[in-house]
Specification:
at5g01610, DUF538 DOMAIN, 4 helices, globular, 9-stranded antiparallel sheet, alpha+beta
């Protein structure tokens, strides 16, 4: 009978208040269970961006769903070439603000143009194209080029590189 006394009413309203606060705040921050079930690549897909924007091996991420602040983590700095013309470097932490079809205020991704390393500061999806901006200039590429994540060291040519190395060691 003690459980039904008047003193239990304030406790139940306190519990209800705590649950309400948790329900309101939890969707805005990534949680351990979200990080356990979703990957950084899944987050890109949720925002209508291709997984190939991140190299293979992303170890985790943080996201604030309210502000769009996004961080993705790699074990170490990652470098590779694409199409034998673009050298890319990813720092171990990549930061930006993510929204549907857009990553802005990007930090941690650089591209080598001629002899200069330039920071990629924004990626915008426009239909079947991705526009990469280095601030003063931008370039468009088909989104199909980013369906697969490149691998550190060999980019998208890892199978070719591995088969050449295998055949030369025979």
């Amino acid at each position: 009978m003690g459980f039904l006394s008047q003193s239990s009413k304030p406790l139940s309203s306190q519990v209800l208040f705590v649950f309400s606060v948790l329900i309101i705040t939890l969707p805005n921050l990534s949680s351990a269970s979200e990080n356990g079930t979703l990957s950084a690549y899944d987050i890109l897909l949720q925002y209508d961006l291709p997984v190939g924007l991140l190299p293979k091996g992303a170890t985790g991420y943080k996201i604030n769903r309210e502000t769009g602040e996004f961080e993705a983590y790699l074990d170490k700095t990652c470098k590779f070439s694409l199409e034998n013309s673009y050298d890319l470097e990813y720092k171990s932490t990549i930061k930006g603000v993510i929204s549907k079809g857009r990553l802005k205020n990007l930090k941690g991704v650089s591209v080598k143009v001629l002899i200069l390393w330039l920071n990629i500061v924004e990626v915008v999806r426009d239909g079947d194209e991705l526009e990469f901006s280095v601030g003063i200039a931008s370039a468009d590429f088909p989104i199909d080029n980013f369906e697969e994540s490149p691998q550190c060291g060999c980019g998208l040519n890892c199978d070719t590189l591995n088969s050449v190395l295998s055949s030369s060691s025979i």
